[in-house]
Protein backbone atom coordinates (compact mmCIF):
# COMPACT_ATOMS: atom_id res chain seq x y z
CA UNK A 1 0.00 0.00 0.00
CA UNK A 2 2.76 2.39 1.01
CA UNK A 3 4.70 1.64 -2.16
CA UNK A 4 1.63 2.00 -4.37
CA UNK A 5 1.07 5.47 -2.91
CA UNK A 6 4.75 6.41 -3.30
CA UNK A 7 4.66 5.23 -6.91
CA UNK A 8 1.55 7.38 -7.44
CA UNK A 9 3.30 10.41 -5.92
CA UNK A 10 6.23 9.92 -8.29
CA UNK A 11 3.81 9.62 -11.20
CA UNK A 12 1.99 12.84 -10.25
CA UNK A 13 5.34 14.65 -9.95
CA UNK A 14 6.44 13.28 -13.33
CA UNK A 15 3.17 14.27 -14.98
CA UNK A 16 3.50 17.76 -13.51
CA UNK A 17 7.08 18.07 -14.78
CA UNK A 18 6.11 16.77 -18.24
CA UNK A 19 3.08 19.05 -18.54
CA UNK A 20 4.88 22.11 -17.17
CA UNK A 21 7.79 22.14 -19.64
CA UNK A 22 10.47 21.64 -16.95
CA UNK A 23 11.58 18.47 -18.76
CA UNK A 24 12.29 20.52 -21.88
CA UNK A 25 15.66 22.32 -21.81
CA UNK A 26 14.67 24.62 -24.71
CA UNK A 27 11.82 25.98 -22.60
CA UNK A 28 13.88 26.18 -19.40
CA UNK A 29 16.70 28.08 -21.10
CA UNK A 30 14.23 30.44 -22.79
CA UNK A 31 12.73 31.29 -19.40
CA UNK A 32 16.13 32.51 -18.31
CA UNK A 33 16.94 34.20 -21.61
CA UNK A 34 15.23 37.50 -20.92
CA UNK A 35 17.53 39.23 -23.40
CA UNK A 36 16.63 36.78 -26.19
CA UNK A 37 13.79 34.35 -26.98
CA UNK A 38 12.10 34.82 -23.59
CA UNK A 39 9.34 32.34 -22.63
CA UNK A 40 7.84 33.25 -19.22
CA UNK A 41 5.97 29.90 -18.82
CA UNK A 42 8.19 28.62 -16.04
CA UNK A 43 7.12 31.40 -13.70
CA UNK A 44 3.68 29.76 -13.81
CA UNK A 45 5.20 26.37 -12.88
CA UNK A 46 6.93 27.88 -9.88
CA UNK A 47 3.85 29.91 -8.91
CA UNK A 48 1.46 26.96 -9.13
CA UNK A 49 3.80 24.61 -7.28
CA UNK A 50 4.57 27.14 -4.53
CA UNK A 51 0.95 28.07 -3.80
CA UNK A 52 -0.15 24.43 -3.52
CA UNK A 53 2.89 23.40 -1.48
CA UNK A 54 2.65 26.41 0.86
CA UNK A 55 -0.97 25.70 1.83
CA UNK A 56 -0.54 21.91 1.68
CA UNK A 57 2.48 21.98 4.00
CA UNK A 58 0.64 24.22 6.47
CA UNK A 59 -2.00 21.52 6.75
CA UNK A 60 0.36 18.51 6.67
CA UNK A 61 3.05 19.89 9.00
CA UNK A 62 0.30 20.72 11.52
CA UNK A 63 -0.09 16.97 12.06
CA UNK A 64 1.89 15.13 14.72
CA UNK A 65 3.55 12.80 12.19
CA UNK A 66 3.31 11.61 8.59
CA UNK A 67 1.00 8.67 7.81
CA UNK A 68 3.73 6.05 7.23
CA UNK A 69 6.72 7.42 9.15
CA UNK A 70 7.40 8.25 12.80
CA UNK A 71 8.43 11.87 12.16
CA UNK A 72 8.74 14.57 9.49
CA UNK A 73 12.19 14.72 7.87
CA UNK A 74 12.26 18.49 7.46
CA UNK A 75 15.71 20.15 7.23
CA UNK A 76 16.68 21.95 10.42
CA UNK A 77 19.85 23.75 9.25
CA UNK A 78 19.56 27.53 9.52
CA UNK A 79 22.96 29.01 8.76
CA UNK A 80 23.52 30.91 5.53
CA UNK A 81 27.06 29.84 4.73
CA UNK A 82 29.52 29.74 1.84
CA UNK A 83 28.61 26.14 1.12
CA UNK A 84 24.93 26.99 0.60
CA UNK A 85 25.59 30.04 -1.56
CA UNK A 86 28.59 28.60 -3.42
CA UNK A 87 26.84 25.29 -4.04
CA UNK A 88 23.71 27.04 -5.28
CA UNK A 89 25.74 29.30 -7.58
CA UNK A 90 27.56 26.26 -9.01
CA UNK A 91 24.21 24.52 -9.46
CA UNK A 92 22.85 27.54 -11.31
CA UNK A 93 25.83 27.67 -13.68
CA UNK A 94 25.35 23.98 -14.53
CA UNK A 95 21.62 24.45 -15.02
CA UNK A 96 22.30 27.35 -17.38
CA UNK A 97 24.81 25.30 -19.37
CA UNK A 98 22.73 22.12 -19.74
CA UNK A 99 19.14 23.37 -19.44
CA UNK A 100 18.14 20.35 -17.33
CA UNK A 101 17.70 20.44 -13.57
CA UNK A 102 17.46 17.14 -11.65
CA UNK A 103 13.69 17.39 -11.15
CA UNK A 104 13.19 17.99 -14.84
CA UNK A 105 15.59 15.29 -16.00
CA UNK A 106 14.51 12.33 -13.83
CA UNK A 107 10.95 12.07 -15.24
CA UNK A 108 12.34 12.82 -18.73
CA UNK A 109 14.33 9.56 -18.52
CA UNK A 110 11.00 7.93 -19.43
CA UNK A 111 11.13 9.48 -22.89
CA UNK A 112 14.14 7.24 -23.61
CA UNK A 113 16.10 10.16 -25.10
CA UNK A 114 19.86 9.61 -24.94
CA UNK A 115 20.49 13.25 -24.06
CA UNK A 116 18.61 12.76 -20.79
CA UNK A 117 20.60 9.63 -19.92
CA UNK A 118 23.87 11.46 -20.66
CA UNK A 119 22.82 14.34 -18.39
CA UNK A 120 21.70 12.03 -15.55
CA UNK A 121 24.93 9.98 -15.77
CA UNK A 122 26.94 13.21 -15.41
CA UNK A 123 24.59 14.35 -12.62
CA UNK A 124 25.30 11.16 -10.66
CA UNK A 125 29.04 11.68 -11.20
CA UNK A 126 28.63 15.22 -9.82
CA UNK A 127 26.86 13.90 -6.71
CA UNK A 128 29.76 11.48 -6.08
CA UNK A 129 32.26 14.29 -6.68
CA UNK A 130 30.52 16.45 -4.08
CA UNK A 131 30.56 13.62 -1.51
CA UNK A 132 34.25 13.03 -2.28
CA UNK A 133 35.10 16.71 -1.78
CA UNK A 134 33.00 16.65 1.36
CA UNK A 135 34.84 13.66 2.83
CA UNK A 136 38.17 15.36 2.05
CA UNK A 137 37.08 18.62 3.65
CA UNK A 138 34.78 19.33 6.56
CA UNK A 139 33.51 16.36 8.50
CA UNK A 140 29.91 17.45 9.22
CA UNK A 141 27.21 15.96 6.99
CA UNK A 142 24.04 17.70 5.84
CA UNK A 143 21.07 15.98 4.23
CA UNK A 144 20.34 17.18 0.72
CA UNK A 145 16.81 18.13 -0.26
CA UNK B 1 15.21 28.11 -30.48
CA UNK B 2 11.77 29.71 -29.90
CA UNK B 3 9.29 27.97 -27.62
CA UNK B 4 5.55 28.62 -27.23
CA UNK B 5 4.29 30.43 -24.13
CA UNK B 6 2.13 27.85 -22.27
CA UNK B 7 0.74 29.53 -19.14
CA UNK B 8 -2.10 27.05 -18.50
CA UNK B 9 -0.13 23.85 -19.11
CA UNK B 10 2.72 25.22 -17.00
CA UNK B 11 0.41 26.33 -14.19
CA UNK B 12 -1.34 22.92 -14.19
CA UNK B 13 2.03 21.17 -14.20
CA UNK B 14 3.15 23.34 -11.29
CA UNK B 15 -0.02 22.48 -9.34
CA UNK B 16 0.67 18.75 -9.89
CA UNK B 17 4.28 19.21 -8.72
CA UNK B 18 2.91 20.92 -5.60
CA UNK B 19 0.37 18.14 -4.97
CA UNK B 20 3.15 15.53 -5.26
CA UNK B 21 5.34 17.48 -2.82
CA UNK B 22 2.48 17.73 -0.29
CA UNK B 23 1.55 14.04 -0.63
CA UNK B 24 5.17 12.91 -0.12
CA UNK B 25 5.32 14.98 3.07
CA UNK B 26 1.92 13.65 4.23
CA UNK B 27 2.76 9.98 3.62
CA UNK B 28 6.51 9.61 4.22
CA UNK B 29 7.38 12.97 5.78
CA UNK B 30 9.97 13.66 3.10
CA UNK B 31 11.00 16.67 1.04
CA UNK B 32 10.37 16.24 -2.70
CA UNK B 33 13.89 17.23 -3.76
CA UNK B 34 15.15 15.51 -6.89
CA UNK B 35 18.88 15.83 -6.09
CA UNK B 36 18.43 14.40 -2.59
CA UNK B 37 16.20 11.60 -3.82
CA UNK B 38 18.72 10.61 -6.49
CA UNK B 39 21.66 10.89 -4.05
CA UNK B 40 19.88 8.45 -1.72
CA UNK B 41 19.58 5.95 -4.58
CA UNK B 42 23.17 6.07 -5.81
CA UNK B 43 24.56 6.20 -2.26
CA UNK B 44 21.95 4.28 -0.26
CA UNK B 45 21.88 4.74 3.52
CA UNK B 46 19.81 1.57 4.04
CA UNK B 47 17.64 -0.84 2.05
CA UNK B 48 14.40 0.73 3.32
CA UNK B 49 15.61 4.23 2.58
CA UNK B 50 16.67 3.35 -0.97
CA UNK B 51 13.42 1.44 -1.60
CA UNK B 52 10.95 4.36 -1.37
CA UNK B 53 13.26 6.51 -3.48
CA UNK B 54 13.43 3.87 -6.21
CA UNK B 55 9.65 3.44 -6.20
CA UNK B 56 9.20 7.22 -6.41
CA UNK B 57 11.69 7.39 -9.30
CA UNK B 58 9.83 4.55 -11.07
CA UNK B 59 6.64 6.61 -10.81
CA UNK B 60 8.38 9.69 -12.24
CA UNK B 61 9.86 7.77 -15.16
CA UNK B 62 6.46 6.29 -16.06
CA UNK B 63 4.93 9.75 -16.51
CA UNK B 64 6.10 10.40 -20.10
CA UNK B 65 4.68 7.00 -21.11
CA UNK B 66 1.31 7.90 -19.55
CA UNK B 67 1.41 11.18 -21.51
CA UNK B 68 2.21 9.17 -24.65
CA UNK B 69 -0.78 6.90 -23.95
CA UNK B 70 -3.14 9.84 -23.37
CA UNK B 71 -2.04 12.21 -26.14
CA UNK B 72 -0.20 9.98 -28.61
CA UNK B 73 2.98 12.02 -28.12
CA UNK B 74 5.87 12.01 -25.68
CA UNK B 75 6.38 15.28 -23.78
CA UNK B 76 8.70 17.58 -25.77
CA UNK B 77 12.40 17.32 -24.92
CA UNK B 78 14.25 19.80 -27.15
CA UNK B 79 17.94 20.01 -26.34
CA UNK B 80 19.50 23.16 -27.81
CA UNK B 81 22.96 22.46 -26.32
CA UNK B 82 25.88 20.19 -27.31
CA UNK B 83 26.84 16.84 -25.80
CA UNK B 84 29.84 18.32 -23.88
CA UNK B 85 27.50 21.02 -22.50
CA UNK B 86 25.08 18.31 -21.28
CA UNK B 87 27.89 16.37 -19.59
CA UNK B 88 29.71 19.35 -18.08
CA UNK B 89 26.39 20.91 -17.05
CA UNK B 90 25.21 17.64 -15.48
CA UNK B 91 28.40 17.22 -13.49
CA UNK B 92 28.23 20.82 -12.23
CA UNK B 93 24.51 20.50 -11.38
CA UNK B 94 25.16 17.35 -9.33
CA UNK B 95 28.13 18.93 -7.57
CA UNK B 96 26.42 22.24 -6.81
CA UNK B 97 23.06 20.73 -5.90
CA UNK B 98 24.71 18.42 -3.37
CA UNK B 99 27.01 21.09 -1.86
CA UNK B 100 24.13 23.58 -1.72
CA UNK B 101 21.83 20.94 -0.15
CA UNK B 102 19.15 21.24 -2.80
CA UNK B 103 17.94 22.15 -6.23
CA UNK B 104 14.93 23.64 -7.99
CA UNK B 105 12.48 21.18 -6.44
CA UNK B 106 14.06 20.92 -2.99
CA UNK B 107 14.90 24.58 -2.32
CA UNK B 108 12.81 26.26 -5.03
CA UNK B 109 9.51 24.56 -4.24
CA UNK B 110 9.61 22.67 -0.93
CA UNK B 111 12.00 24.96 0.96
CA UNK B 112 10.48 28.22 -0.26
CA UNK B 113 6.99 26.89 0.57
CA UNK B 114 8.21 26.40 4.16
CA UNK B 115 9.53 30.00 4.03
CA UNK B 116 13.01 28.64 4.82
CA UNK B 117 15.49 31.52 4.63
CA UNK B 118 18.22 29.12 3.47
CA UNK B 119 16.03 27.96 0.59
CA UNK B 120 15.05 31.48 -0.41
CA UNK B 121 18.73 32.53 -0.46
CA UNK B 122 19.67 29.36 -2.39
CA UNK B 123 16.89 29.82 -4.96
CA UNK B 124 17.69 33.50 -5.59
CA UNK B 125 21.38 32.57 -5.90
CA UNK B 126 20.91 29.80 -8.45
CA UNK B 127 18.28 31.66 -10.49
CA UNK B 128 20.68 34.59 -10.75
CA UNK B 129 23.63 32.29 -11.63
CA UNK B 130 21.55 30.48 -14.24
CA UNK B 131 20.37 33.74 -15.81
CA UNK B 132 23.93 35.08 -16.00
CA UNK B 133 25.17 31.77 -17.47
CA UNK B 134 22.46 31.75 -20.15
CA UNK B 135 23.24 35.38 -20.98
CA UNK B 136 26.95 34.61 -21.36
CA UNK B 137 26.50 31.38 -23.39
CA UNK B 138 23.86 32.89 -25.71
CA UNK B 139 24.77 36.55 -26.04
CA UNK B 140 28.44 36.90 -25.16
CA UNK B 141 30.06 33.66 -26.41
CA UNK B 142 27.36 32.38 -28.76
CA UNK B 143 25.80 35.70 -29.77
Short description:
In chain A, 65% of the residues lie in helices and 0% in strands.
Written overview of the protein:
The complex is a heterodimer of chains A (145) and B (143). Chain A is mainly α and 145 residues long. Chain A has one domain. Helix content of chain A is 65%, strand content 0%. The two termini of chain A are 25 Å apart. The model of chain B has no long low-confidence stretch (mean pLDDT 95). Helices cover 76% and strands 0% of the residues of chain B. Chain B has 143 residues and is mainly α. The interface between A and B is large, with 120 and 116 residues.
Secondary structure elements and pairings:
The complex is a heterodimer of chains A (145) and B (143).
Chain A: H1 2-20, H2 25-32, H3 41-60, H4 82-98, H5 102-108, H6 114-136
Helix pairs in contact in A: 1-5, 5-6
Chain B: H1 7-28, H2 34-42, H3 47-71, H4 83-99, H5 104-113, H6 117-141
Helix pairs in contact in B: 2-3, 5-6
Amino acid sequence: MRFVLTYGVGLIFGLGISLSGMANPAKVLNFLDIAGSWDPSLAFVMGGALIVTYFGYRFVLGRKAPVFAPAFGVPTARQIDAKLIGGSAIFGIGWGIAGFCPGGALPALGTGRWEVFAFVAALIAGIFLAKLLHSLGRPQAQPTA
Amino acid sequence: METTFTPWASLSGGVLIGIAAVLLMLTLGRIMGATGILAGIVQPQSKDDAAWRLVLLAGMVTAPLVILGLTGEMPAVEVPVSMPALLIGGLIVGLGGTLGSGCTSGHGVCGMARLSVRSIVATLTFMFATGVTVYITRHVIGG
